[in-house]
Structure formats: structure tokens, C-alpha cells
Amino acid sequence: VGQNLVSLKEVDSTNNYLKDMLSNSKPVPEGTVIMAETQFAGRGQQNNVWHAQPGKNLTFSLLLKPSFISPQQQFDLTRAISLGVYDALYPLLRDRLKIKWPNDIYFGDRKLGGMLIENMIQGGQIKSSVIGIGINVNQDNFPVESGAPVSIRQILQRDYELQQILSQICSHIEGWYLKLKAGNLTFIREKYLACLYRLNEEHLFRSNNQVFTGEITGATVIGQLVVLSNGEEKLYNLKEIEFLNKDK
Ligand code: BTN
């Protein structure tokens, strides 16, 4: 991962750029990475916009071809990628680093990064997976309306080389991707759970316009969040549940 690297000054979104490359006839090798200094239409999950100060943060997309897993197993790919990012940042950030379900990267209660995974499914197989990753590295302030994200610079009080963090992330993603390929699913699922933000802690949630306290007890094989509330475990898909805290 990352051997074939395309560095762009400016692009709408590296995910879009990579998807355009795929729809042109020339084959794109697995592991290709597109990185951009500036995205003028960076995309987040659930149709959100992804903002980053030009040149300060990591914004890139990488191409994988996980045809060995079925579309029903997509969440194991999400887990593997999240763990790759987590392991790459762990030496810098240690135990306050967490994966917030489904695939946000958190430091304490603040968002440090996120990913947008777009899988192209054809003939019952994942033909290609465009994995867009944004990590706040050197940004020194964030617009008020963006919630309360955080950057590595704000945490550690120094700038970091984007290339260096990129190459760490690529090599750890590769490691977890190979575990996925080898079918080490139990290991991947256990490790994902061990890194999960607010696992087994009381937290305020909202679902269906109802606010309730509950405790995350796990995630199902296909990636639904399992929340225990009032002695009952319930499953939630993305969009069905919201974490309520001031930093959402
Ligand atoms: C999220 O947390 O909502 C996901 C953010 C994903 C942002 C990255 S930046 C590189 C890639 N290109 C995009 O347009 N989005 C992803």
C-alpha cells in the first residue's frame, strides 16, 4: 500500500479522483494512494463536508481490491482499516486514542480523523474499495461550527511530517489487510472492540428522537452497534443512533 503514490496540489475530493481513475479504462493497481494538499469538495460520511486547512492535514484515498470478502463482510474491512490507522497513530497518542463506531478516530472525546469507504460491488463481490482517510495533523484551529475536532499538533504541540504519517498509516493498513485476507476475523473483531470509544461505559444516546442512557457492549458481525439500555440489548445501524455529548 502506498508504493504507487499520486500527489496532487488541489482536487475536489481524492475519493472522486480515484473513482474517476477506476472508470477510465487503464487498470489502477491495488494499493494506489492519491493524496492532496487541498480538497475543495472533501466529503465525509452521511453527506457531510470534510474541511481541512490547505496543506496542514492528511487527506488521501487508497485503493484496495478485497474480492476475497463478501459484501456482507464489508464491516470487517472497515475494522481492518480503522485498526491500521489506530496502530499507526498509537505510538504518538497512546491510550486516549480510540476508534469511535463505526470508523472515526478519536482522541479523548474529540475527533481526530475519519474515513469514507466506498465499495464497488459487482457480481456479488467487492470489486474495489476506495478508502478515503482524513487525519487532522497540523491544523491549529477549527471553525466553531465544526464541533470540537482536534489535531495531533494541538495535542502534542508540534508539527508532523505528513508524508511520514502517511507511510505509517499505509504500512499498518497493509498489515491489517493481510490479516483480513488470511481470514483472522476473530482477532480483527476482538482488537476492534478493544479500541472502541466508550465501550462498556454509560453514555447518552439519541435514537428515534428518544434520548436514553446506555452502554455499548459490542458490534455485530455486520457492524451494527450493540447498546445495552434498561437491561436490554438493542442493535443499531448507522444513522439510527447518535452519540450525545457536547463534542458530537
Ligand atoms: C468522516 O469522518 O465523515 C469521513 C471523512 C473522510 C475524509 C477523507 S479526506 C480524503 C478523502 N476524500 C474525501 O472527499 N473524503 C475522504
From TrEMBL:
Protein name: Biotin--[acetyl-CoA-carboxylase] ligase
CDD domains: BPL
Pfam families: BPL_LplA_LipB
InterPro entries: aa-tRNA-synth_II/BPL/LPL, Biotin_CoA_COase_ligase, BPL_LPL_catalytic
EC number(s) reported in the record: 6.3.4.15
Signal peptide interval: none
GO MF entries: biotin--[biotin carboxyl-carrier protein] ligase activity
UniProt enzyme class: ligase
Superkingdom to which the source organism belongs: Bacteria
NCBIfam families, A to Z: birA_ligase
Organism of origin: Mucilaginibacter terrenus
Record-level GO cellular component terms: cytoplasm
Domain spans labelled BPL/LPL catalytic: 1-181
UniProt entry keywords in alphabetical sequence: Ligase
